Amino acid sequence: MLQLNDVHVYYGGIYAIKGISFAVPKGKIVSLIGANGAGKSTILRSIVGLVQPRSGSITFQGENLQGKRTDRIVKSGITMVPEGRRIFPNLTVKENLRLGAFPRDNDGAMAEDLNWVYELFPRLKEREWQKGGTLSGGEQQMLAVGRALMSRPSLLMMDEPSLGLAPKLVQEIFEIIKQIHKQGVTILLIEQNALAALRICDYGYVLETGSIIMHGTGQELLQHQGVRRAYLGIAE
């Protein structure tokens, strides 16, 4: 579905992404794990056109994404839940969600998807007319995910969805990710919570200073001694 081939990205004089290649097959959950500064968020920003690679190729369902405007990429079926949620604090929950459906013009389907989001996140239904900025951190993350789902993406990219959440809410968010996946949405997940990410992913890539240093199934990486020591805090 999504394919990156030998992608190189620079931020000014910083060599941020160093020839990365990986694929996200249709219907799978793929996780990118690594420390802060490894280049995980830069990869997502490159995919949606917010950063232009110096070289390499990014294709989605066989179509080249480079040079496309971000709104056109979203309309092609890719949506991102950004790090830090980035909701609109002065708009209501419902207004935030409706903004997520901007690529679409079918009001009937929009109403149906709004109900779908409320089924996934009943708390958002309860707070439908509450301003986004008054929600708790966990509720704001639910709103950010729900807003992304309103575009009915084929590929949902999530940047640190568990960041800053209490352990109970982290578990809840990952359960929601599994529910979304079961409904046919392909997911590219970036997470510092390597344990949670690898437990639910089909395949994972470990990034370090802009390069992929390791890859394998989620279970393979969970059992890898280097991953366990560096990212899971488990000393052998």
Overview of the molecule:
- The chain is an alpha/beta fold and 236 residues long.
- It folds into two domains: 1-77 and 154-236, Rossmann fold (3-Layer(aba) Sandwich), CATH 3.40.50; 87-152, no CATH class.
- The chain is 37% helix and 26% strand.
- The protein is built from ten helices and ten strands.
- The strands form two sheets. The protein has a six-stranded mixed β-sheet, with helices on both faces.
Can you describe this structure in just a few lines?
With 236 residues, this protein is α/β, with parallel strands linked by helices. It has helices spanning 40-47, 70-75, 93-99, 107-120, 122-126, 137-149, 167-182, 194-200, 218-223, 225-230; strands at 2-11, 14-24, 29-33, 55-60, 63-64, 78-81, 155-159, 186-191, 203-208, 211-217.
Notable features of this structure?
236 residues, Rossmann fold, six-stranded mixed beta sheet, four-stranded antiparallel beta sheet, 10 strands, globular
For the sheet with most strands, the description reads: 6 strands, mixed
Percent strand equals 25-35%
Would you tell me the overall average pLDDT?
A: 88
Terminal-residue CA separation? 37 Å
Gyration radius, to the nearest Å? Answer: 18 Å
CATH class of the largest domain: Alpha Beta
Helix tally equals: 10
Count the strands? Answer: 10
pLDDT < 50 stretches:
none
CATH homologous superfamily (4th level) name of the largest domain: P-loop containing nucleotide triphosphate hydrolases
H/E element order:
EEEHEEHEHHHHEHEHEEHH
The amount of helix comes to: 25-40%
| CATH fold-level assignment of the largest domain | Rossmann fold
Q: Give the CA-based shape.
A: globular
* Main structural class: alpha/beta
